[in-house]
Each structure stands twice: as C-alpha cells, then as structure tokens.
Design brief:
Length: about 475
C-alpha cells in the first residue's frame, strides 16, 4: 500500500505542477484573447474544435488505455500498432479536410471551411502520437509528462497572444492546438521512437481489441453527448449565444479539468496493477472519492457565489451574458469532479463494458436534456439547468453500475459515507455565503471576490482542522521547525 501511495503521490505532484502552471498560462491567454476577439469568433472556433474533436476519437479508438492496461505487448506489437495509427491519421486528416465544405455550408460560415482545413493537421499528429504517448503513462513517467506539458503550454500560449496582437483575428485561436499537437508528438517520439512498417498491424490490434472496442464506443458516445449542445446552439441560436455559452462552459470545465486531470491520468496506470484484486481497488478508490468530494462540492458552492466576479475579471464586461449560465453550470462541478474519476476505475479493473454502458446511459440522458433545454425552453439558462440535472442522475447510475457489476455487488454504504462530511461543509458554506452575497452586492468586484474567497478559506480550513480531516496546524508547525 505504501508503494501505491508513493506512486500516486509522485504522479499527482508532477501532474499538478504542470496543470496548475498551465491554469495560469491558459487564463492569461484566454483573458487577452477574450478582449481582442468577439463572441462570434469564439463561436465559430468552438464549432470547428467540437467537430475535429469527434474525428479525433477515431484516431485513438481506445488504443492508448489498452496499451497501458495490457502488460504483454511486445516491441513488435507496438511497431505494428504505430503503423496502423499512421495510416489512420492520414485517412482521418483527409476526410476532415474534405468535410470542411459541407460543414461550412451547414453553418453558413465560409471562414469555418478554412479553419477546419488547417485543423486537419491536428488529426494526423494526434494519431501518430498515440503509441509514444501511451508508453509515458504505461511506464509512469509523470515527471517527464509534466515538463512536456508545461513547456508546450508556454510556447503555444505566447505564440497565440503574439499573433492575436499582430491582428490575426480568430486564426489566433487555432495556433495553440495545431502547434501543441506537433510539439507533443516531436517530444514523445524522441523519447519513444517507433518503427513504421508497411502493415495495418491487425494481428497486434486483435490482442487489445476486446478492451479497446468498448473504450472506443464509450469515447464516441461520451464526446457526442458532451458536445452536441454546442453544435445545436451554433445552428439554431446563433454564433454569439454559442460564444457566451462556450465561455461559461469553459470556465466550468477549468476546475474539472485541472483537478481530475491531475489525478485520473495517474489512477489508471497505477491501479491497473490491481485489476485482479477488486477489494483493494475499491477501497483505494473510496479514499480518492473522499478527497475529490472535499474539493469538488465546496468548490461548486464558491463558484456559484463568485460567478459574476470570476467571469468579468477574466474575460471582461462584454461577457456579462455568460454569468447566469456559468452560475448554473457551476452547481454540477462537484458531481462531475467525482464522476470523471470513475472511468479510470472501469479501465483499471478491465471492465470497459461497464464504462460503455454508463456512457450510453449518460449520452441518452444528456442529449434528452439538451434537446429539452434548447427546443422546449429555448434559453441558455434552461439548457444549463437541464445539463446539471442529467449529470446528477448519471452520477447515481454510474456508481450503482460500478458497485453492482464491476466490484461484484460490493455495498455502496462505504462509498456514500465518504460524501457525508464534504456535503456538510458545502451546506455550511451556503449558509454563510448566501447572506454575504446579498450584503456585498453592487460593490467593487475585486473586493467582493476577496471577501468571499477569504470566507471560504477560513470556513474550509477551520472545518478540516476541527474535524481532523487534515492537521493544518501540525503541518505548519512541522514546516516552521524545519
């Protein structure tokens, strides 16, 4: 157990260093670009990135996690799989390039055609990077991954701001993803060079097919359900509403991505070693869920009460229509932070079939909520509310599936007990911030943000100290003695 903690801590530490420095970089870049470009520009690019993201799922097809999970793949197998990803990358890049004409015509945006054609480069490099990148995680080289991510973010972020200031317009928004895919591949391939063969590698692919097939199907339906809202808003509500919604959604995803994506990339490689010990796997995961709940649930409360300050400070006054949408979406942050970690457990246990079932249920539910929000109510706020409701229902179904099927009918009581204390501190924060929010309403947004943030830190810190969740005072004393 000590070795597991050491591996997880080391992986989380280095991933966190890269992620949280990346938060600062991405917020600075987003803040600059939000003041230089219009909501329409962000809406157009959002459409392009959603569609290319869907094509990108077909470059991976569940291969990457399958390489991490399978401990018996040889160098020859990896070379064959690498060769397959090259041919697949070429094919998908050409298909996306050709699809740029009907995509542009569907949305009535000529500039969308050019953006899609340029972004086709991403598909090729993302595909040929699958095998080298998976080997980083398989070998648990989290420190190297962190440095790679940090350097690429600095380089691409600086370039994006530079070309925006030079007057590149919305093209500045695609500089970073294109350059990132090329740099990450170059660094990864230098570390883990692969040999290309004139083969489709089908024999080697059969070794991971049973695992990767369900993973691939999950990726397809999960991506579709999470991005259909943007496609429908752009088509039926316009690019400006999509720009406002995209900013709200991106703000909501910032803590989600930069908390869970610090932990979940580490969980699968480390916990896959215990795929045959479900008791150990489940008990380890319950401790992780408790940690995520203590972060996510109070964070949802704070984001709800600071939605206006956060939006206006980062993006500026022109993004004021995003505030009510972000406020509603923030209510789902805590649930999503916990829920997003579940995929790593399905992967680590080898039960990608359950992962697919949960994804299918979630997709049907999310799409239904989106259609109701857009076509029945017709407002961004209603859409955000529907999404929050569907995530909550999906949370219940997912963990029922995990404990009933993956963990072989393990009792849900240990899982539920991990949520009691995080829920209590969240309710305490609501009781304090609700009247404070009314009192400071209309004051300077920097002042109100500081007041709310300080109250959150005091209440949260006192709670975890007095409940002995974590000995903050003792840690500070030890630090001073050193």
């Amino acid at each position: 157990m000590t070795d597991i903690k050491k591996e997880i801590f080391s992986g989380v530490f280095y991933t966190a260093v890269a992620k949280y420095s990346g938060i600062i970089i991405s917020l600075v870049v987003a803040g600059v670009l939000a003041r230089l470009l219009s909501p329409d520009d962000f809406g157009v690019v959002a459409i392009a990135t959603v569609i290319i993201g869907f094509f990108g799922i077909f470059t991976d097809m569940g291969i990457s996690p399958a390489i991490v999970q399978n401990k018996e793949l040889t160098k020859s197998d990896l070379s064959d799989i690498f060769s397959f990803t090259i041919w697949m990358g070429i094919l998908l890049a050409l298909l996306f390039f050709g699809a740029s004409w009907p995509i542009s015509a569907w949305y009535g945006s000529p500039i969308l055609r050019t953006l899609c054609q340029l972004l086709a480069i991403n598909l090729f490099f993302a595909s040929i990077n699958i095998v080298p990148n998976a080997l980083f995680y398989k070998n648990k080289e989290f420190k190297y991954i962190a440095w790679r991510s940090f350097l690429v973010q600095i380089a691409t972020g600086a370039l994006a701001v530079g070309v925006a200031l030079a007057g590149a317009g919305l093209y500045a928004l695609i500089v970073s993803p294109i350059l990132s895919s090329m740099l990450i591949w170059g660094i990864s391939f230098r570390r883990y060079p692969q040999q290309m063969r004139l083969t489709l590698g089908l024999e080697s692919l059969r070794k991971i097919f049973s695992y990767s097939a369900y993973q691939f199907l999950f990726n397809v339906i999960n991506y579709f359900s999470r991005n259909l809202d943007k496609l429908l808003i752009g088509k039926y509500m316009g690019m400006s509403p999509l720009g406002y919604y995209e900013k709200s959604y991106r703000l909501m995803m910032l803590p989600l991505q930069n908390i869970t994506q610090v932990i979940t990339p580490v969980m699968h490689p480390v916990l896959s070693d215990f795929q045959n010990d479900l008791e150990r796997l489940s008990s380890s995961y319950e401790k992780i869920v408790r940690f995520l709940a203590f972060i996510g649930l109070p964070l949802s409360v704070v984001l709800f009460f600071t939605a206006q300050e956060v939006t206006l400070i980062i993006f500026g006054d022109q993004w004021m229509p995003s505030v009510p949408v972000f406020r509603i979406l923030s209510l789902s942050v805590g649930i999503q932070i916990m829920l997003s970690s579940s995929g790593s457990i399905f992967q680590a246990s080898g039960d990608t079939r359950s992962l697919f079932i949960c994804g299918l249920f979630s997709s049907i539910l999310n799409v239904s909520g989106m259609l109701i929000g857009i076509f029945f109510f017709g407002t961004l706020e209603a859409l955000a509310a529907c999404i929050c409701i569907t995530f909550t229902i999906n949370f219940v179904q997912c963990y029922w599936q995990m404990y009933h099927v993956t963990f072989k009918r393990r009792s849900l009581i240990p899982f539920v007990s991990q949520l009691r204390s995080p829920l209590l501190i969240s309710l305490l924060l609501v009781a304090v911030l609700l009247p404070v929010n009314q009192f400071v309403n209309g004051m300077n947004i920097f002042f109100t943000l500081c007041v709310k943030g300080l109250l959150f830190l005091i209440i949260f810190g006192c709670y975890i100290q007095f409940t002995k969740e974590y000995d903050i005072v003792g840690t500070i004393k030890n630090w001073i003695k050193r």
